[in-house]
Amino acid sequence: MKFVIIFIQIIILYGFYLAGESIRTIFHLPLPGSIIGFLLLFAALMLKIYPLRWIESGAHFLLAFLSLYFIPATVGAIEYGNVFTGKGVWLIAIVLVSTLLTMAVSGLSSQWASRAADQRRNR
Amino acid sequence: MNVILLSFLFAGLTIIFYLFLNSLYVKYRWTLLTPVLTTTTALIIFLLLFDIPYGQYMLGGKWIGSLLGPAVVALAVPLYKQRDLLIQNLWPVTLGVTAGAFVGMLSGLLLAKIFRFSEELILTVLPKSLTSPVAMQLAEGFGGISSLAAVFVMVAGFSGVIFGSWLMKLLGIDSSIGRGIGLGSSAHGLGTAMAFEYGPKDGSMSSVAMTLCAVVGSFLGPALVWLFF
Q1: Whether A14 and A46 share a structural domain
Q2: Do residues B129 and B100 touch, judged by C-beta distance below 8 A?
Q3: Which of B23, B56, B75, B77 to mutate to test the interface with A (most CBs of A within 10 A)?
Q4: Residues A1 and A57 in one domain
Q5: What is the mean pLDDT of each run of 10 residues along chain B (229 residues)?
Q6: Distance CA B220, CA B163 (A)
């Protein structure tokens, strides 16, 4: 019975995704359909239009194996091995530098904002 | 062999490799044993060994890949459950995530431009700070290469996990909010796994940041592409 519920809920998640894809196509949006579907579900949950328990086990089941779903695509890197010979190696350095920069900016700014908010609260 | 049988074979093979290597990761918890990395490597070796073209593997592979879209939708559930944490820290989260998504995309774009990489590769690197399923769909939408985008996402994740604790110590990022948002905004899922090692609040913050970054990045990415190309 539990698996039937999970299965039905995954189909509902698929429905949200397809709804997002249709909205993207109809309005020519540059957003991925999955993100539109995500926003639809999040809004439905926040506005209490759709109850959490009708989606929760399906979502948990699907997310438990999240990394599985993009493995077939990552295997596709097999066809682009030549990108990383020669100059392409620099892309790895670029990603490294950019990642650390991102961590520094997001970490410092959020920490600063949260301490500023705490001080205001304590004053 | 007929197509349906092959499809089942490759889909099944992917799942079996994944479940086995994932159990290895669960047992030892080494970052290098991350199932995406080990399963991808194992499958690539398998395909090369038996001389199977990628297109043939994808007969079954695309079945598994079709769960990416609904999985992104499912991310709304953990975010909804953490809504109190989000609302309590709305300003620091919004600031950190927006700044992170912006710097993550713009710095990658500019650096790759300075090194004169092709437009296709720049567009592939662009979404690397976002969680893989979203990064891949964005890269594809921009005209980049989605499978390479996933590779850069992994490089970003490993960069964050390997140098994160050193960098955060250096910069004095020592609060749950700072660490969580820093890791989630730059190193997505891998960063979030590391944030949970600092503590449950760090981890929750990181997963909130990862999800919100994917949303903000989905709006910001197309804007940057429109601006620069």
Answers
A1: yes
A2: yes
A3: B77
A4: yes
A5: 89 96 92 91 96 94 93 96 95 97 97 96 97 94 94 95 96 97 95 94 96 97 95
A6: 26
